[in-house]
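Hey all, sorry for the wall of text incoming. These are the two entities for the joint prediction.
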Amino acid sequence: MSDHDFKSPSVEAFLERLGSDAPTPGGGTAAAVTGAMGAALVAMLANLTIGRKKYADHEELMTAIAEEAEIERSRLLELAADDAAAYEAVGAAFKMPKDSDEEKAARTQAIQSALKGACDVPLAVMERCLEVIGLAKTSVQHGNKNAISDGAAGAEFARSALRVAGYNVKINLAMIKDEEYAKQARTRMDEMEYMGANAATWIDSRVNEAWSS
Amino acid sequence: MSDHDFKSPSVEAFLERLGSDAPTPGGGTAAAVTGAMGAALVAMLANLTIGRKKYADHEELMTAIAEEAEIERSRLLELAADDAAAYEAVGAAFKMPKDSDEEKAARTQAIQSALKGACDVPLAVMERCLEVIGLAKTSVQHGNKNAISDGAAGAEFARSALRVAGYNVKINLAMIKDEEYAKQARTRMDEMEYMGANAATWIDSRVNEAWSS
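and here's what came out:
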């Protein structure tokens, strides 16, 4: 749907739409875009390392990181659109008729199913962001020292996106009645937040070390 | 300069350029754009509050917040361009001739002056982001409960942008010889990081409280 295309509008138009009272795009879409920004910065550090004699030992690794980061950037931009679609599906389900018992049951089922979709998308955003943070870690470790702040910035934005995507998982989980699903989703979310925080702390201390040496 | 126009390119084109090995845009520009994204999300929460009977008491406040946040969004997009220009000015100064003593002196002076510019821009980004976090705080406190996650997301992104802008201040400060300037810049930076972290923690606990009640 062209309505969920957040790639083609200009940066300014996207931000204007984000700021409006339209229900989408909202924080979830912004998280996916911020994650994509993080992936781009990791690719930048890798691309600024490739081809430099001093880092020739890590040429292959950095080429792989640049490719992976670019794939994550594209995936996250897809998820930006998926997030808006999933959010709107919840709204549409809530608007279903509820006059008869049959209608009520169908509506409840549609809401519950849409809520799972609205959890699955930010969970996928979190997963991609965690991947970006992992790539950032390796790129900061072995990449061009003069550009490691770009990799660290990439990790910071991916971490921020991971946290905001987590907000949306929490909000939707609170309304999901399937306890088994909710339990698994919560566990995954907690694990990812923990791993993301750990990696971010590592990158922070590594970068501060590099700057003070 | 059209080369520093990060408003008109599509989101996808901007991210592609960010990921390339071109020296700009880099983390500093990305920080300003992320701050603008934070401002847009604060405007979103305010706009989703305005006109709702339940929040009529805060109508004026929310209208002011929406306006302020939209101004910050524009300012931050301007700063995204300024950051790239300031970074390139440093590169240009380093490329100045250094054959004679006169040339060396002129080059050193140009570098030092450009480095101050490359500190001033991220410091201004930090200031705008701190403002956005303040607006987020008020909007989360008095805004539409159903949309406070958007305000919290806005604060999170502004906080993240503030930290990344801080990286660039640190990197450039390390090369600045004017100790008085460096001392003042460092103090402002530390204050803003502290205030940003405090406000973000407050928003986090407020949002978690709202979700668990």
